[in-house]
Every structure is written in C-alpha cells, then in structure tokens.
C-alpha cells in the first residue's frame, strides 16, 4: 500500500514541477498586458483571459501538491495543542468525513457541466476572449481527482502509522 502512496505523491510532485512555470508565464503575460496598454495603447481581452486561465490552472492542479506538503489552510483551534497521535486521528476523520465526500460531491455535480461544455466546445467568457472555456471547466474534475488521490495517499500513510502504534 505504501507503494501506491509513493506513486500518488510522485504524480503530484511531477504535476507541481510542470505547472510551477505557469506562475512565471502568468507574471510575464501580465507585464506585457500592462506595457501594451499603458505604453502602446493596445488591449487584448484574450491576453487578459490567458492570465485567468494560467492562474486557474496553477491553483487547481497545484492543490494536490499543496495538500501533500501540508501547506493548505488549516483551522488550528484544537490541532496545535494536541499530540501527534491525536492530530493523526483528526486528519483521518477530516479526510474521511469532510475532504473525500466534498471532492466526490464536487466532481459528481460539476461533471454534467464539464461534459456539456466539451460537447459544444464552449466558447469564450468575453467577446474576443479565448475560445476554450471547456478546458477551463475541465480543471474542476482534474482538481478533484488530484485532491482525492492525495487524500488517499495521506490516509494510507496515516493508517499505516496508526496501525504500528
């Protein structure tokens, strides 16, 4: 089982290594937009939307890695003051009762919208924008799957540790 967890972790690390470059590209595109607008008087809705697409891709596909390295948002009301074993049990309950059900519900309820978007190859958000909203919507199930897999990996590791103690 730990081999499965290792493979999932490696997959999220690989995705993170690929998409981290989107942050630099996003900054460069935004810089070009600002220079184009204020220096040359040129404006492009497609270029502005590309920043939105880059940001969405970076956030949505990077979330699994964020969960892997434990840098996600956590409400530390009780968590900070308890033992490692209690933290592990809180995490197990959180994954099983909150994270996995919410990601499953999100992928279930968003799938019809994603499927329909692909069916019609849904066009731009704004007139003159990028004609690929179907790709943007595809990030939703991608996000859910990466989070679900990483949650499974973390659960495997936590349960393995729990069984050893």
TrEMBL record:
<feature type="domain" description="Tripartite ATP-independent periplasmic transporters DctQ component">
    <location>
        <begin position="26"/>
        <end position="159"/>
    </location>
</feature>
<comment type="similarity">
    <text>Belongs to the TRAP transporter small permease family.</text>
</comment>
<keyword id="KW-0614">Plasmid</keyword>
<dbReference type="InterPro" id="IPR055348">
    <property type="entry name" value="DctQ"/>
</dbReference>
<keyword id="KW-0812">Transmembrane</keyword>
<keyword id="KW-0472">Membrane</keyword>
<keyword id="KW-0997">Cell inner membrane</keyword>
<keyword id="KW-1133">Transmembrane helix</keyword>
<feature type="transmembrane region" description="Helical">
    <location>
        <begin position="52"/>
        <end position="69"/>
    </location>
</feature>
<dbReference type="Pfam" id="PF04290">
    <property type="entry name" value="DctQ"/>
</dbReference>
<keyword id="KW-1003">Cell membrane</keyword>
<keyword id="KW-0813">Transport</keyword>
<dbReference type="GO" id="GO:0022857">
    <property type="term" value="F:transmembrane transporter activity"/>
</dbReference>
<feature type="transmembrane region" description="Helical">
    <location>
        <begin position="21"/>
        <end position="40"/>
    </location>
</feature>
<dbReference type="InterPro" id="IPR007387">
    <property type="entry name" value="TRAP_DctQ"/>
</dbReference>
<dbReference type="GO" id="GO:0005886">
    <property type="term" value="C:plasma membrane"/>
</dbReference>
<protein>
    <recommendedName>
        <fullName>TRAP transporter small permease protein</fullName>
    </recommendedName>
</protein>
<feature type="transmembrane region" description="Helical">
    <location>
        <begin position="90"/>
        <end position="111"/>
    </location>
</feature>
<comment type="function">
    <text>Part of the tripartite ATP-independent periplasmic (TRAP) transport system.</text>
</comment>
<comment type="subunit">
    <text>The complex comprises the extracytoplasmic solute receptor protein and the two transmembrane proteins.</text>
</comment>
């Amino acid at each position: 089982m730990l081999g499965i967890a290792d493979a999932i972790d490696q997959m999220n690390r690989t995705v993170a290594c690929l998409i981290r470059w989107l942050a630099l590209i996003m900054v460069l595109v935004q810089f070009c937009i600002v220079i184009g607008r204020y220096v040359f008087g040129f404006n492009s809705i497609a270029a502005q939307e590309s920043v939105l697409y880059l940001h969405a891709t970076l956030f949505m596909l990077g979330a699994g890695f964020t969960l892997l390295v434990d840098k996600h948002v956590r409400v530390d009301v009780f968590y900070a003051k308890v033992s490692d074993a209690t933290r592990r049990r809180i995490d197990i309950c959180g994954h099983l009762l909150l994270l996995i059900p919410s990601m499953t519900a999100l992928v279930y309820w968003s799938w019809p919208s994603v499927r329909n978007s692909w069916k019609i190859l849904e066009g731009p958000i704004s007139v003159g924008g990028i004609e690929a909203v179907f790709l943007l919507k595809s990030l939703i199930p991608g996000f859910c799957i990466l989070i679900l897999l990483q949650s499974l990996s973390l659960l495997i590791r936590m349960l393995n540790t729990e069984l050893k103690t």
